[in-house]
Each structure stands twice: as structure tokens, then as C-alpha cells.
Amino acid sequence: MAQFHQTFFEESFEGLDIMENELLNLDVGNADNESINTIFRSAHSIKGGSGTFGFTAIAEFTHVAETLLDEMRDGVRQVDQVSVDLLLKSVDVMRDMLTVYKDGGDMDADNIAAVQTELENLLGAGGSSTSADDSGSTTENTASAGWIISFKPHVEMLRTGNDPIRMLHALSELGEIEVVADISELPTFADFNPEDSFISWEITLTGDIKKEDVTEVFDWVEDECDLDIKPIASESESPAFESSETTPADVEASSTKQPAAKQAAAKKGGGESASIRVGIDKVDEIINLVGELVITQSMLGQIGGEIGSDADHNSNRMEKLLEGLAQLERNTREIQESVMRIRMLPISFVFSRVPRLVHDLSGKLNKKVELVTLGESTELDKTVMEKIGDPMVHLVRNALDHGIETPEQRLEAGKPETGTLTLNAYHKGGSIVIEITDDGAGVNKERVLNKARANGLVGENEVLSDDAINDLIFNPGLSTAETLSDVSGRGVGMDVVRKNIKSLGGSVRVDSVEGKGSVFTIQLPLTLAILDGQLVKVAEETFVVPLVSIIESIQVKAENLNGIAGKADLYKLRDEYIPVIRADHVFGMSNSQASLNDRLMVVVEGDGKKAGIIVDDLLAQQQVVIKSLETNYQRVDGLSGATILGDGTVALILDIAGIIDMFKEKSAPVPPAPKGNGTDSDIADEAA
Amino acid sequence: MTTPATELNSIIGSELDSDADQFLTFVLGEEEYGVDILRVQEIKGWDSVTPIPNTPEYIKGVINLRGTIVPIVDLRQRFNMPEVEYGPITVVIVLKIECEDRDRIMGIVVDGVSDVYDVPPEEMKDAPDFGSVVDTEFVRGLATVDEKMIIILDIDHLLSGSELQAADSISG
């Protein structure tokens, strides 16, 4: 049962997200039927699921919200801002309840009751009507002399195991029944598919029967048929009913419109179900296996190439083998690409959190904001996506709180009353770029600078470039908001944003023009699983240097080398001095004091610090799949992981920032105990 | 009282003693050691490894085991026994280690694989403190099979991360 619970929760949370999204997109006053249908269907399946699993609190609450939606769907109720806000609140309540059921904890019963009462009040007050075909309504308890039921199963209804005959039997038990079958839809025998349903029925049921009893019969097929239940002689019976009933023309219009909308919705539903839920561990397993496949393939290719160049074997069959190997290589590469793509999701998963945030915040801050999202289908790895959500939300909050001004201020500044917040995402090389643009006040450079001076971050007489000043806002302890709000401005935030993004191997910067607005640009690697690396050789071992941290590779010129206290070397690189790190020393692999002249040096930057790493050779540049050392071992200083090279051997990936730190520590008097490889004997000599 | 296992044994006529644990034994010098066979993932010949910088001497390095990075420990060096040249029968036994937080895979380099024995729990003797060769905390017990003494190792303790870290800080 627990596994179904898991699925139910996942689907319900997704359903809530859909509801929220659609609600936010609803054009108030002119809502289209399809959106309301989508919202209704989500609510309906949550209600159904929670009922099945015994989460009655959710089922009951959702039922009330569903009733409101049902009235909207039937066009009985206007879609106005009040009800949309209330429905959004209901979504929150439902989400809280689901979380409580999922993770345990206490329900906020007061809040639930309050929202439920609000909903009920709205239902009662706005109730110019109880619609006749309001199937789920609690307010519905009308009994009449009987019902005229028009029941038209969709073509595929039989396949779901529902039998119309059984339903007709069930109806006949309720009262006197008269059934007229409409077989006009029946195709010619040649086209006839016995698993499809073509017949529709017009059922007249007479007797003192409650509507619920009638709808109950159709409970299971609600979504698989067109159903219309009307009380007999409703036209003449009660004037109250008549007044609330829509005019015949309207009925026709809505009844023709409704199936169309339903069909469209059904089609959309079909598209959604074209995906399957797979555990991420299964995907990772495939990725691992494909990695193995690639290695095997390259090994085969190499052997094939060697044999192929051997003239004796150069026969027809050999040629075929080489052809096959080439084919294998192409296929393998395609498989690898497709597999990596499985983990990629469109960024709309993150963007979808924003509309709600903007809606709530702009209300709270009394600002008018229009949200524009671009590039929502840009894909990035799931792991990156999970981690970028919070920093991005923080930037959006920041833009709303500090960036966009109040309508009055905006008008004063000659700007349109409504501010615009733009989210844009696109691919650039091997990274994804996310831009958060607002047309608000921009960074107040003077205030930032004053604050930074007051905090001692910037010296009194230091002159900073505009970019440098903008960059100051990522400093810890620098919040320039004049009033602290619960939205942002506690002075922690921007530095955390930068830290989080950096830990993902990305960067964030701000461009701002005072009075015109700001652009926050986040750049991230597409995936955490793959890295563009430069292979280097150090003391006979191959290491991988992340390409993003490499500035350039140069040949050391003796005249630019400067020693400091005979210990460390500094290299003059154009107008700056950078420390020279002998990788083999830091890693304790050798202690050779060979001259650095003419050696290769990779200039790298990690954590804002530059350094030159001396390597023995530069090898190929290639994409490598990052494997953790911690899985089976533990973290090792100076290494961010390992990878498997084309020949199946393991190469270690350097953690540049870590190495620079290690180098600093090692520059202190105590030398490392180098490891293995016969160099042990001369350690002692080097200790001085 | 018949458990399914004993029932099964009587059906297939197996001589397996259902109470006895099975141990894979290997040799280090003159001594024979045993590990719980259920922990053994595979046995493979010694192949080159990628050394990890700044790790204790007995961590030979890491290998690629079907896409996973697996560290290799030289058991002789771990027990401070004299080193020997790796030869054609030098093998790596790949073991599953259960740490407090998760399972890890590690390989141990030994002189050679010996045999598989059933050892009933009652024949397992507590290890006396036998000095510096093997720390008794790595030893689960001693068993006698065919007049030979087998040292049964507690591999979780032997290779666990905290142990490595402790060793790391000592040697570093």
C-alpha cells in the first residue's frame, strides 16, 4: 500500500502545482473552459485518491473547493479575483494537508476550517444557483418526479471495464425506467470494433429518486462519457429553478462547448500520460552502464584499428569488422547522449514556482508587477535544477522587494505603473544562463558604497569601478534595504545565493543601471555529472583539470620567476604575480627540484584566487563523467572526484580551490610525507 | 522445529550446516585469514591502480570496477607485515563493507585465495591479544579447520571510513 501512497502523493503534489499554475494564468472575467477543466480534473483526482486511501480530511476539503470549481465549469459562477484567490489559498491548505499525511505532523485545523468556511460562504453567497447538472455539489439534494438522463459513452469507455448494461440495471433498480438507444453512430460492419462503444442512451427514470443516487451509478465513468441529468418537467415545475436555469440558447451553447473543451482536455491528458515515472537511481544505473559501454567500445575500436593496420589481415572480412566498429561507435555515442538527456528537465519546473511568488509578494508589497518568462523549455540536469530553485527564488524576491518600485514612485520616475520582471533561460556553450531582469530602481551605487565603507569592506579612499560596486551586494552583511521586511533584506541572502551557485560550479553577477533596472545573470553547468576537462600529466599520473577554471596554459620563462624566502615561487604574469604550485609536491608524489624553466604551467583560478600549476604534459581535452570518491572511500583534499578514461583507467579530477589552499598550508614549514614510488628515501632531506 | 532452510537442505540432501557461516580464506605470508563469504563481491587478479595523493601507504589507489570507483587496500601493509612483490597469484578480493551510514565497496590485496570453509559459531574462539602483528580489534575470532588456525576478520571494522580517517591522521 505504501508504494501507492508514494505515487498518490507525487501525483497529488503535481496536481496541486498544475492547479496553482492554471489559477494564476486564469484570465479573470474571461476564463476559458479548458483551464477550468484542467483545474477541476486535478482537484477531482486528488479528492478521489485521498478518499481511496482514507485521507478523509483532504477529500472533504477538496470536495468543497471542487464544488466551487464545478460551478465555474458550468458557467454558473463568474470567475472573479475573489474566488481565484480563495482557490489559491485552498491549494495551499491542500498542500499542507498532504504534507502532514505524508511526513506526519499536526494539521493546522484552524486554518483549514477558516478557508473551508470562506469557501462555503462564497458558495452560499454567490449561489444564485444550484446548477441542475451539478454532480458533486453538497447543496444538491433535490428530488424530483424523475430524471431524464442522456448517457453517451465515449468510444473507449468499454475498455476501462465499465459495462453500460450493468449501469442500466442499476438504474432500473431505482425506479421505473424507459430506455431509448441511439444507434445512429454505429459504423458499418467492416469498420466495427467490438471493443469500442458507439451506442448512446436516452433514459427516462421515474419515481421519487435522489439525484445523488443517479449520479452514483455513473461515478466510475464520469470522465469517460457525456452525461446529462435533467429533472423531468423541470421547465414547468418550480419557478425558482427556472430563474436560475440558463436560457435554452445558453444551454445549447454551453453543452456544445463543453464536450469540445472536455475533448481537448482529454487530448491534453493523453499527452501527459505519455511519460513514465522512473526512479533516478535506475537512470543513474543506466548512465553507469553506458559509461562502461563507451569504454568497451573504445577498447574494441582501438584493437580493431591495430589489427586493421596489419596488412596480412587486410581482407574483406576485416573491412566489414572495421565498418561494424565504426557503426558501434556512432550508436554508442548516440546512446550516451540520449541517456544523459533522460536526466534533463525543462527549466519550467523551477520557473513555475515564480508566478505564485510574484502574485503573493506584489500583493503584500503593494506593487504592480508583470511577470514574463522566456526560454522555459531550456533543459538542464535534474540535480542542478533541484539546487538552483532556492537561489533563484531569492533573486526574484530581491528584485520585487528592492528592485521594482511602488506604482507611485514609478509614475514619478516617468515609468509605467506596472513593473516588469523577466525570467529568461538559454543555453550558451556547455552552460545554461538564467537572467532575472527587472525594470526597477537598480542598484543604488552610492548607498552600497557608503554601507561598504561603513562596514570596512572598502577603504575610505578606494575608488571602485561600477562593476566592482555592483559586485559588493554579494558580500555578506550588506543589505541596503531601508526597512527590513519579512520578504528580504536581512543581510544574509545575496552572499548565500552566490555561495550556493558557486558550489554548483556556476557564477552569478549583476549588471545594473540606476533608475533603469538590474539584470542578475546566473551561469551554471548543464549537468553536475559531466565536466569539460583538460587532461594533464603529473609525475606519470593523469589528472583532469576542469576547463572552466583554466585561464590559460603557458611555458614558464625563467626571467619571470621570483622566489620568496627561498620557499615559494611567484610568477610574473603580465601585470600580476601569481604563486607557482608544483602539483607533484602538493600531492607528495615527488620532490624533484628540477628547474621550472620551460616547464608547462596551467594558470587557473579557484575561489577568486589565481595560481599557476606546473604539469609535465598537456594531454587531450575531453568531457569526463564525474564519479565520486566518497561513494566507496572518502573525500580527499585537492580532488573533487574521479573519472574513467577511454582506456578504462581511473583519472583523478583536481579541485583547484582546494589545491590552492593545500599549497598555502604546505608552504608552511612542515612538509608532507610523500607516498610510494621509491622516492621515500629522500623525504628527510627535503624536510628542512 | 524446521526452518525453511533446513527443510530445503534435507530435500536437496545438502551437507550444508545451516548454522555454520561460510568463510572465504586467503593467505598472507604463512597465515590464513577468513572473511564472511556473503561479503565477497568478486575476486580478481591484481591490475594497476591509480594512486590517490596524500593517503596512507596501504591505500594502493582506486580502480574502475564497472563504472564505480573502488579503493584498494594492501592488507599486508595494513597489518604492517613485510611487503612482497605482487605476483601472478596476487589477487584483489572485492568486499562489501557495511558502515554506519551506508555500504561501501573496497578491494583488499592478498597473497592468494585459499579455500571456503564452514565454521559453526561454537567453533569460533575469541582472539587472545596477539601483539603487534594484527590488532585484535580487527579480529572477530579464531577458528580451527583441519588442524589449521584461521583468523576470521571483522572487515567492517577493518576498513571502515572512520578507521581510515584515524589511520590517515596518524600517518599524516
Task: Give an overview in words.
- The complex is a heterodimer of chains A (688) and B (172).
- The model of chain A is unreliable at 127-143, 234-272, 482-491 and 669-688 (pLDDT under 50).
- The longest helix of chain A has 30 residues, at 280-309.
- Chain A is built from 22 helices and 22 strands.
- Chain A has 5 domains: 2-125, Four Helix Bundle (Hemerythrin (Met), subunit A), CATH 1.20.120.160; 143-244, 2-Layer Sandwich (Alpha-Beta Plaits), CATH 3.30.70.260; 280-343; 346-525, Histidine kinase-like ATPase, C-terminal domain (Heat Shock Protein 90); 530-686, SH3 type barrels (Roll), CATH 2.30.30.40.
- Helices cover 44% and strands 22% of the residues of chain A.
- Residues 11-15 and 161-172 of chain B have low confidence and may be disordered.
- Chain B has a single domain (21-171), classed as CheA-289, Domain 4 (OB fold (Dihydrolipoamide Acetyltransferase, E2P)), CATH 2.40.50.180.
- In chain B, the strands form 2 sheets. Chain B has a 5-stranded mixed beta sheet, with no helix packed on it. In chain B, strands 3-6-7-5-4 form a 5-stranded mixed beta sheet.
- Helix content of chain B is 17%, strand content 41%.
- In chain B, strand 6 and strand 7 (103-110) form a beta hairpin.
- At the A-B interface, helix 11, strand 21 and strand 22 of A face strand 4, strand 5, strand 7 and helix 4 of B.
Question: What's the topology here?
Answer:
The complex is a heterodimer of chains A (688) and B (172).
Chain A: H1 2-25, H2 33-52, H3 56-73, H4 81-103, H5 109-125, E1 143-153, H6 164-172, E2 176-182, E3 200-210, H7 211-217, E4 225-231, H8 234-237, H9 239-244, H10 248-272, H11 280-309, H12 316-342, E5 344-346, H13 348-351, H14 354-365, E6 369-374, E7 379-381, H15 382-403, H16 407-412, E8 419-428, E9 431-438, H17 445-454, H18 466-472, H19 494-503, E10 507-513, E11 517-525, E12 530-538, E13 541-546, E14 550-555, E15 561-564, E16 568-573, E17 576-582, H20 583-586, E18 600-606, E19 609-615, E20 617-625, E21 639-644, E22 650-654, H21 656-667, H22 683-686
Parallel strand pairs in A: 6-8, 13-22, 17-19
Antiparallel strand pairs in A: 1-3, 1-4, 2-3, 5-7, 8-9, 9-11, 10-11, 12-13, 12-20, 14-18, 15-16, 16-17, 18-19, 21-22
Chain B: H1 4-12, E1 21-28, E2 31-36, E3 40-45, E4 59-65, E5 68-74, H2 75-78, E6 91-98, E7 103-110, E8 112-119, E9 139-145, E10 148-153, H3 155-159, H4 161-171
Parallel strand pairs in B: 2-10, 5-7
Antiparallel strand pairs in B: 1-2, 1-8, 3-6, 4-5, 6-7, 9-10
